[in-house]
Amino acid sequence: MQLDAKIPEGPLAEKWNACRFSSKLINPANKRKYEIIIVGSGLAGASAAAALAELGYQVKCFCIQDSPRRAHSIAAQGGINAAKNYQGDGDSIFRLFYDTIKGGDFRAREANVYRLAEVANNIIDQCVGQGVPFAREYGGTLANRSFGGAQVSRTFYARGQTGQQLLLGAYSAMMRQVAAGKVKMYNRREMLDVVLVDGAARGIVCRNLITGELEQYSAHAVVLATGGYGNVYFLSTNAMASNVTAAFRAYKRGAGFANPCFVQIHPTCIPVHGEYQSKLTLMSESLRNDGRVWVPKKAGDKRKASEIPEDERDYYLERKYPSFGNLVPRDVASRNAKEVCDAGHGVNDTGNGVYLDFADAIKRDGIDVIRRKYGNLFDMYQRIVDVDPSREPMMIYPATHYTMGGLWVDYHLMTTIPGLYATGECNFSDHGANRLGASALMQGLADGYFVLPYTIANYLSKVPWGATDTKDPAFKASLDMVRERTARLMASTRSGKGKETVDYYHRELGKVMWEKCGMSRDEKGLKEALEKIPEIRAEFWEHVIIPGKEQELNQSLERAARVADFLEFAELMVKDALERKESCGCHFREESQTEEHEAKRDDANYSHVSVWEYKGDDAEPELSKEALIFENVTPSQRSYK
User: Fold this and answer.
1) Catalytic residue among 253, 330, 559, 562
2) Is residue 571 a contact partner of residue 534, using CB atoms and an 8 Å limit?
3) pLDDT value for 274
4) How far from the centroid of its chain's Cα atoms is residue 552's Cα?
5) What kind of architecture, by CATH, is found in domain 473-603?
6) 438 φ/ψ angles, rounded to the nearest 5 degrees
7) Is 335 one of the catalytic residues?
8) Which N-terminal residues, if any, form the signal peptide (predicted)?
9) CATH 3.90.700.10 is held by the domain 271-398
């Protein structure tokens, strides 16, 4: 596989301008003659649809939900980063770039991360113009708060609803173009294959989730904005519909998949409370601004939090990381929570939990101030757990959250398939081995509003314009393949061999992934996973039960197709984790740690992006490597002490 990142020459701060200047342009009259498919309508997809349609392109946007307003982007609570430096506390574009590179443990491209930091200020201006109700100071200026992995206040927020408010801004901009006839929405559709004509992406096959019918759509280019694959673990903070299918279909068509083992574990989630739980709920990282994390000093202490005196509490993050305290990055906070719980200091009935305590902040600022910052988060926690966080500490524990791995893309956001782009969490490009908090919203909107509109024109300028259609034989071949796969999924039910539900197999896969390829990994466990996953997959195809029929509303069939992809993709994740013998960011190999149990990188052997190429169902995927060159920062052992 040839990996040409297309990074412009020249100084870091001038690369994006150089890229834009050198990119080919399309005049406004001709833009109307190009059709673009966008799969996904969250922040990355909606912003891309709005921006591209505003330029004149004809956009077809596909949404898995009944409305783009239900995209998982709404679940982002804490905020969005930008280096406006309103606080005058020393922030700058370069500092945001450096914090992001360092937070990702030096496993991301310098050029992409700098561009992200560079355009972030434009995002804030754009969203304010759309009416996004960011929090403001008394004098009317936009407010900022701190977030993990930074010593400055650069996170813009709308209470604990930042993702929802930003999505409503992007949705409004997109719906303006729907009304203008430049964007055509296809709700309740799920992409099941990407269609290649002469080696280039020219359309998709999708399932109508209401009727069950398979549909074909054509365009001059295809953009995937379908989010991450955290639900491979079954229990995660992701929406239940989040899946890997679109990205995995692109991988099977020849798109390289980069760093699939890089999966972020979020430290502030409501702990698991039962065997048959199907979803975990995120508590925003912003809570760590005012909440103090602690556990009892005495192992096995089952007293209530209120009964444990101050001198018998271990504020372990403050003790171990005095410079950052409770605002260490997510991977560091998560591993430390696991460490104290494994040592017997955990709270909750299961012992898998730590306290997040707001008593000191409430005493300092008053309950009214704290509720103005976090009121909806407090209410959410109380509804789920039946505990008032203003009176008792929250209980939190790490859970699968964001995925840094994704489809490999070059500086233009194009995959290894010409004409196929990936934006937002669907690609790998900006976060390295660990994403800092409040950076997901930043990347999604940067890609959609400010990067893709420039770079896609450079590609389309070389593609003949005119109306597209689905008459090419490649569309029929793709449709036949999807039908055959669906028939295979239904075979065990029709033959009477079905024994277990889709959720049973998904849960079994999740247990293996969490235990063997979760917060920590070792060679023995990863090899065990590579033996167990094929067994679960074989059992699934032989005995899964799927009620209903193909061509009708059938949510069991939808889930079965997604889990079938997870059962294949999980194996790729484990192979990637096994191949990367270093520890970096969220990828913690037990064999590679410092004396203080911190991640120990191996820059001599692993300063690269691992890109996997599909070679067939019966063949091993092929690994290619994109070397990471650091000219503006020096990789060093991360320290937050």
Assistant:
1) 330
2) yes
3) 77
4) 31
5) Up-down Bundle (1.20)
6) 70, 15
7) no
8) none
9) yes
